[in-house]
Amino acid sequence: MKAINANIEVQKSKLFKKFGPITIKLDETLAAANKAAADAVVKKEEVKKEVEASLAAVKAVIEENKTLVTKAPKGKEGAAVLVQIKTEMTTIEASVAEAQGLYDKGSYMDASNKVKAANERATGINTELKDAIAKVHGKGKPEAPVAKPAAKPAAKPAAKPAAAPKKK
After folding, report:
1. CA–CA separation, 64 vs 130, rounded Å?
2. Burial class for 72, CB neighbours closer than 10 Å (0-12, 13-18, 19+)
3. What SS3 class is residue 130?
């Protein structure tokens, strides 16, 4: 735009003015600006839908985590770990609530970033809980013996043919 304004000033100072090329550049700039504005609206809608889906997904993971916490082992170290997990889940829920507030204000990109971070942490907790539950339930079940293939007897090497006496 500054270059176009500079060209206009140059043409104003001339005796024979040519504004045709400047008009073409202005039309191109206007078309680019309109396209950018339309693209921004489309992108905003995409991000809005993405945030809605992410919010629903992270809320589902949080609910699943709450049910998994009740099933998690509470042994020696388990109780301390569960306290940490519950604290982390409270932090995640606060982050999701903040993201929902940003979404409601129309700050979709900020909400998207918050939700992605919360979803990542909630999914990590979910995996950790599922692994701990599987490990405990795995101990209670007897392991099935692994069937080994029957060993084949070693084949005896073929007898060597008797060496013929050497001639002198």
Report:
1. 10
2. buried
3. helix
Q: Which two tokens stand for residue 42?
A: 């489309």
User: Do residues 92 and 62 make contact, with C-beta atoms less than 8 angstroms apart?
Assistant: yes
Nearest to 129 by CA among 91, 74, 76, 54: 74
Q: Are 48 and 108 a contacting pair, CB within 8 Å?
A: yes
pLDDT in tens, 18-40: 777 878 888 888 898 899 999 98
Which one-letter amino acid corresponds to residue 18?
K
Question: φ, ψ for residue 101 (rounded to 5)?
Answer: -65, -40
Q: What are 84-117's pLDDT values in tens digits?
A: 888 999 999 999 999 999 999 988 899 999 999 9
